[in-house]
Amino acid sequence: MKIPFTRPYRTGNEQKYINDILTNIQNGAPISGDGPYGKKCEQLMEEKFGARKVLLTTSCTSALEMATRLINIQPGDEVIMPSFTFVSTANPVVMAGGRPVFVDIDPVTLNIDPAKIEEAITPRTKAIYPVHYAGVSCPMDEIMAIAKKYNVWVVEDAAQGVGAKYKGKYLGTIGDFGCYSFHETKNITCGEGGALVINRDDPDLIERAEIIREKGTDRSKFHRGQVDKYTWVDVGSSYVQSEILAAFLFAQLEAMDEINQKRMEIWYKYYTQLKPFEESGVIRLPVIPDYAEHNAHIFYVLFQEQSVRDTVMKQLQEAGIHAVFHYIPLHSSPMGQTFGCQDGDLPVTEETSGRLLRLPLFTGMSNDEENFILSRLKQVVEELRRNN
Ligand SMILES: Cc1ncc(COP(=O)(O)O)c(C=O)c1O
């Protein structure tokens, strides 16, 4: 048996909605962005999440770039973020001339540690970018209190957190901005895609976001008939999502709860069957704090040390199971080191990165696939327990 790390799921309606566009092209149905399907996706998220404004984008990376531009990050500005994240959290800050300030994570949740955020605040701090790792919420009350105290912005990197909650509130709707990913690897997908959530009730901010998303022009106002021509009014880029992708995405968004529920069943099957090995001390399983309702985006196992993790990963891969690890901490990467960081700076991040293994987890995984992964992993872990 060969089990991929991820396999995109189809709800059955993607084809129907895309065909709808294709058959209506002659009648003027758009295939560029901001058409009826794009609007439906945005409206669905605004209503479901209780968000002030949602704008579909080409990716979460572009949503993070938009947020970074909206808060006017300038050369010399500092943005506090975890190092245990994907490069897209940091790249927009660097592109704007700012400096990412990497801080350590909490060893229990693997999310940014609020105490470390406060230690890293300086007069140059402009924003905090918390990342909801694995779709498990960061402690947002504490982060928002720090942001208020020092008057800095909060941009939630909720790439992995679509449909997950913090104290009953959807991730992405708590900070000033939230950024979602609909990449192929995510719970809800259209191949490549994302969304920016704007939570401040500020019409000027929303209008500027539309301008930045439309290459720096006021084309959105022109489409609404609010101006009779459109022109270049700000610095922007091409961040609007194509209508064809939005049609695919709409089918997935409509099925969000069902998709997340299916993933949750696999997640808990892994959790309950591996729990006895956690009790015997050979592995550690994810911890979901009381304040978080997660979305089963990632299932990871922490081993006692990197050499063990590497051996287990190799054994699973030899058995045809594509288990993987991430992240190479950003602060110790070649690019991260250009910001004056080095190995040893963030011990929890570094040792977590060496011990973590992600198991395949995707909607539509068969019982046979789940059982095969579990039986092979249990066998390997049982050997570890005996040799312990
Ligand atoms: C934490 C985090 N931020 C940002 C991204 C970037 O998302 P996208 O591929 O939609 O640009 C990812 C994607 O894996 C991610 O995991």
Automatic annotation (TrEMBL):
Pfam families: DegT_DnrJ_EryC1 (PF01041). It comes from the Archaea. GO terms for molecular function: dTDP-4-amino-4,6-dideoxygalactose transaminase activity; pyridoxal phosphate binding. SUPFAM superfamilies: PLP-dependent transferases (SSF53383). This is TDP-4-keto-6-deoxy-D-glucose transaminase. Belongs to the DegT/DnrJ/EryC1 family. Keywords: Pyridoxal phosphate. It comes from Methanospirillum hungatei JF-1 (strain ATCC 27890 / DSM 864 / NBRC 100397 / JF-1). Gene3D superfamilies: Aspartate Aminotransferase, domain 1 (3.90.1150.10), Type I PLP-dependent aspartate aminotransferase-like (Major domain) (3.40.640.10). The keyword RNA-binding does not apply. One of its GO terms (biological process) is polysaccharide biosynthetic process.
